[in-house]
Write a structure and sequence with these properties.
Blueprint (H helix, E strand, L loop, with lengths): L3 H56 L16 E7 L9 H18 L4 E7 L1 H10 L2 E2 L4 H5 L3 H16 L5 E11 L2 E10 L23 H17 L16 H75 L1
Parallel strand pairs: 1-2, 1-4, 2-3
Antiparallel strand pairs: 4-5
Length: 323
């Protein structure tokens, strides 16, 4: 049995750790709030642009984009993988890395050997370097400070490679933020772009009003999602009375790159919010575990102290009787 001093030292250590995890939980909660606000400010513009673009392309018979044309053969693939720069966020980074490796194995099975990884975040970049995979650059700053302009440049680079035949397919691997307690790992095709109207509003299921990862919040999200699904009009009615100026090609050349840019930026914001939510939940769990451990240690300390007092009293009583 450990001595009283050892138990007391461990209690002090656990209390110090609990203070750290509790503070990290509050910091993650604050950062999550800012990330949610960023998504909330971006969504109206993104949703409206998506609806206008896809409705316009579907309703105009001659409308088509070079970004939606699949290549005849798939020999070169690019994967844009979103992770975090720091750890202590549960299985957030490990899940992203596992899905990336699964995607690489699937393409290898299809005979695709030229796979380029665009790692956004230190954790996935370190894994790519360790495995010796082909890397398309370093984007460590984006994981900590989401920047629309940097996302636009990355989207433009991928689009140019796709148009010039340097890449046949581009995929995004990231966590889709639904609520503080639910982040869905996704693997989505970026290029060739899907311009069907069936997917309009498909990812507008975020709960941006709460930082609580509770069962009650989960139930609220499920009800909200069911309500929106019932109100959504499949194959939405499309206004086909478009007046195109100056011409169809110019309009498409301006709209499609904006939509692709927003896809990358949205994935980044989703990933950042998911990271903070995962860290908040992990630190809350660590704090709860520290509380339970403190209860056990205090009970053990009190029992040991009482046993020591009883032993001393017995020695005193025994000595008095002998005298």
């Amino acid at each position: 049995m450990p001595s009283l001093k050892e138990i007391k030292t461990r209690i002090t250590s656990v209390k110090g750790t609990r203070k750290i995890t509790s503070a990290m939980k509050m910091v993650a909660s604050s950062k999550l709030h800012h990330a949610q606000v960023a998504i909330q400010n971006m969504l109206p513009y993104s949703n409206q642009l998506e609806h206008i673009l896809k409705s316009f392309l579907i309703s105009t018979p001659d409308a088509s984009s070079e970004y939606q044309m699949a290549h005849a053969q798939m020999k070169r693939v690019a994967l844009v993988v979103f992770s975090s720069n720091s750890s202590l966020c549960g299985g957030f980074n490990n899940n992203v890395i596992k899905l990336m490796l699964q995607a690489v194995e699937e393409y290898h099975a299809l005979g695709v050997e030229d796979i380029t990884i665009y790692p956004i975040g230190r954790k996935v970049e370190e894994k790519v370097d360790k495995l010796g995979l082909k890397k398309g650059g370093s984007f460590l700053d984006l994981a900590d400070k989401p920047n629309s302009e940097d996302c636009r440049q990355l989207a433009m680079k991928l689009c140019e490679q796709f148009l010039h035949g340097e890449v046949d397919k581009v995929e995004l691997i990231y966590h889709h933020f639904k609520s503080a307690g639910s982040q869905i790992l996704q693997r989505r095709t970026f290029l060739p772009i899907d311009l069907s109207t069936e997917a309009i509003g498909e990812e507008n299921d975020r709960d941006l009003g709460s930082n609580l990862a509770t069962a009650k919040a989960q139930e609220y999200l499920r009800k909200k999602k069911a309500k929106e699904a019932g109100e959504r009009i499949q194959g939405a009615k499309i206004n086909d009375d478009f007046i195109v100026e100056p011409d169809l090609e110019t309009v498409l050349r301006a709209l499609v790159p904006k939509e692709l840019h927003l896809s990358v930026y949205t994935a980044l914001l989703d990933s950042v919010a998911s990271e903070h939510a995962a860290r908040m939940v992990a630190m809350q769990a660590a704090t709860d575990n520290a509380d339970e451990l403190l209860k056990e240690l205090n009970l053990q300390y009190n029992k040991s102290r009482q046993a020591a007092i009883t032993s001393e009293l017995l020695d005193i009583v025994g000595g008095s009787v002998n005298n």
